[in-house]
Structure formats: structure tokens, C-alpha cells
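Can you make up a protein sequence with its C-alpha cells?

===
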Amino acid sequence: MEHHPAAARLTEAAAAVQQHGSGNLLRIVIVVMILGCVLTAWFLLRGYKQKDD
């Protein structure tokens, strides 16, 4: 069986999450979701801007 360093890092990260809980991961997910909502709202609402040309 071959050694895959990326798979080993992923396994270590999963083990660390199980040991320390999912607090940091949950914070990252929430921040990314909020930023995504803000960027989506900006993208959609910029089309409603009135142009005075």
C-alpha cells in the first residue's frame, strides 16, 4: 500500500477535530456563510442601482 501524505494530514486533522471539538470549524463555516450572504446580496442588489446617464 502506498503512503499518501495528504491523506495522512487529512486523517490527523479529522482526529484533531474529534479531540478538540468542532468549535473552530463551526466558526469558520459560519464566517464563510455570512461573507457569502453579504457578497451575494451585494451582487444581486447592485443591479438595482439607478444610472443617471
About this structure: Residues 23-52 form one domain. The chain is about 75% helix and 0% strand.
